[in-house]
Specification:
The chain contains 13 helices and 18 strands. With 401 residues, it is an alpha/beta fold. Bound molecules: flavin-adenine dinucleotide.
Length: 401
C-alpha cells in the first residue's frame, strides 16, 4: 500500500515511538503529556530482561537511574513507596526491570507489544510496517531501539560458532556454563561483573583485557557527599568523573566545544571501567591485562586462543564482553532509502535540535544520539534531556504547521 492509500484509509498517526526501554517510555510519557498523539511499540525493558545476566546490578547510581517523566512522579522512590518494595543499592537488575515495567503501566498503558519490521519514506511521513502485517503512515518516527543491534565482536573470533564464542548480550543466565572453563574478553563493567557472576556460580574463569590497568568508578563516595562542593563537581546524571560529569550533563553546551575536545572528554567519561563495589567480588580471578587475543581456533568442541604475548589458552567458551558500536546501517528495519539519506559520522546519525536526523521527521534517542549530544545519551539518566528536547521540538513544529 502506498502512502496516499494509507492516508486515505485513516491509518495514520502523528508520532510513532519504536522502543519501550527507558528512552522510549520516557519520550512517550513526555509527548503524551504535551498532548501529542503517539503510538509506542516494543517489549517493555526487553534488553535489560533478556540480554543482561541474572544477578547483575546496575553500575549507575540511584539518582541516575530514574526513568524521566514530565512531573518527576515516577521515580525509583515513588516505585518503592507505591509497591512497598525495598530496592537495594547497587540496584539489582530484576528490580530495575520491574521498575521499568511499573513505569510503563503508569505512563504508557497504551504500549503495543509488537515489533516493527520496516520503516520507509512515504508521502507525508513514513510508512511503518509491523511484523504482524499491519501498515500505517506516521508523520514522525522516533527510534529508541537501544544498542542491541550494534554488538561488537572482535574479528579474531570470525567464523567461531556461538557455542564456543558468544557476545555477552546473547545470555541472560550465565549459570548455564556450569562445569566449563570460560574466558571473558574485555575489562569494562560487563566483563568484570560477568566474571564475578561466573566465579560465584563455581565456574572457572579468566579475564583477558587489552587495557593495561583496570579503571574503577565510585571509589570515592565521600566526594559525592560534600554538599555545595560536590554539586560543583558532579551532576546528578552521574556520567563521568568530577568536572566532566558537570560538562557532559549539559549537552547543548558540550556540543559547542571543538570536536577533538568532545571526543577526548567523551572517552574519559565512558572508558571501560568497573564499579568500585565489584572489587572484592573479583578476588581470586586471574585477570590478564595489556594483552589481546590474536587468533582463535575451534578444536574438538574446545576453543584454542593465542595471545599477543605468545601464551595460549584452551577453554570451553569465550564470552565476548566487547561492547557495542553504533552503525545505523545495521538497523534491520530501516529501509535502504532512509539509510542512504541519513547523514552519518562513524556510523552515528548527525542530529540537530530535537534529536532530528537529516531525514526530516526521523528522530534518534539513546546511544545513537551520542555523537551529536555527547555521552550522556548512552545512559538512563540522559532520557530526561532527550525527552524534553524531543517534545519541545515536536510541539513547536506542530504549532508552526
Ligand atoms: C550490561 C549492560 C549494563 C548497563 N548498565 C547500565 C546502567 O547501570 N545504567 C545506565 O544508565 N545504563 C546502563 N547500560 C546502558 C543501557 O543499555 C542504556 O542506558 C539503556 O538501555 C538505554 O535505553 P534505551 O531505551 O535506549 O534502549 P533499550 O533499553 O535497549 O530499549 C530498546 C527497546 O527497543 C525495542 N525494540 C527494538 N527493536 C524493535 C523493533 N523492531 N520493533 C519494536 N521494538 C523494538 C525493544 O523491545 C526495547 O523495548 C548498560 C548496558 C549494558 C549492555
Amino acid at each position: 500500500m502506498g502512502g496516499e492509500e494509507l492516508m486515505n484509509t485513516g491509518q495514520k498517526c502523528e508520532v510513532s515511538i519504536i522502543g519501550a526501554g527507558p528512552y522510549g517510555l520516557s519520550a512517550a510519557a513526555y509527548l503524551q503529556s504535551a498532548g501529542v498523539e503517539v503510538r509506542v511499540f516494543g517489549e517493555p525493558m526487553s534488553f535489560w530482561q533478556k540480554q543482561m545476566p541474572v544477578g547483575m546490578c546496575l553500575r549507575s547510581s540511584w539518582g541516575a537511574s530514574h526513568i524521566a517523566d514530565p512531573k518527576q512522579a515516577l521515580t525509583l522512590d515513588a516505585y518503592c513507596r507505591q509497591n512497598g518494595n525495598h530496592v537495594a543499592k547497587p540496584i539489582p537488575l530484576d528490580r530495575f526491570v520491574d521498575y521499568g515495567c511499573w513505569f510503563q503501566r503508569q505512563a504508557v498503558p497504551n504500549l503495543e507489544r509488537r515489533s516493527v519490521r520496516c520503516i520507509d519514506l512515504a508521502d507525508g511521513g513514513f510508512k511503518v510496517s509491523m511484523e504482524d502485517g499491519e501498515e500505517f503512515l506516521s508523520r514522525r518516527v522516533v527510534l529508541a531501539t537501544g544498542i542491541s543491534t550494534f554488538t561488537r565482536r572482535p574479528t579474531e573470533f570470525d567464523g567461531i560458532p556461538s557455542a564456543l564464542a558468544s557476545h555477552s548480550s546473547e545470555h541472560s543466565d550465565l549459570r548455564k556454563f556450569k562445569g566449563q572453563r570460560v574466558v571473558v574478553i574485555g575489562a569494562g563493567q560487563s566483563a568484570l561483573e560477568s566474571a564475578a557472576l561466573f566465579k560465584e556460580s563455581g565456574i572457572e574463569v579468566e579475564v583477558i583485557g587489552r587495557q593495561r590497568n583496570l579503571n574503577w568508578v565510585g571509589l570515592h563516595p565521600r566526594l559525592h557527599h560534600l554538599g555545595f562542593v560536590s554539586s560543583l563537581l558532579y551532576s546528578k546524571r552521574d556520567v563521568g568523573p568530577a568536572g566532566i560529569s558537570r560538562l557532559v550533563s549539559m549537552p547543548h553546551l558540550f556540543r559547542l566545544f571543538p570536536r577533538e575536545f568532545q571526543e577526548r572528554t567523551a572517552y574519559r567519561a565512558i572508558r571501560p571501567a568497573g564499579a568500585g563495589w565489584l572489587q572484592p567480588r573479583l578476588t581470586g580471578i586471574p585477570i590478564t591485562l595489556g594483552h589481546k587475543v590474536v587468533s582463535a581456533r575451534a578444536s574438538n568442541s574446545h576453543l584454542e586462543l593465542k595471545l599477543d604475548d605468545g601464551t595460549e589458552r584452551r577453554v570451553d567458551h569465550a564470552l565476548l564482553a566487547t561492547g557495542y558500536r553504533v552503525d545505523v546501517s545495521r538497523y534491520p528495519f530501516l529501509s535502504s532509502t532512509i539509510v542512504k539519506e541519513l547523514e552519518t559520522v562513524s556510523g552515528y546519525p548527525v542530529l540537530k535540535r530535537g534529536l532530528e536526523s537529516s531525514v526530516p521527521g526521523l528522530h534518534f534517542l539513546g546511544k545513537p544520539g551520542a555523537w551529536s549530544f555527547g555521552p550522556l545519551l548512552g545512559f538512563v539518566s540522559g532520557a530526561e534531556f532527550a525527552s524534553t528536547e524531543l517534545t519541545r521540538s515536536i510541539a513547536r513544529n506542530r504549532f508552526r504547521n
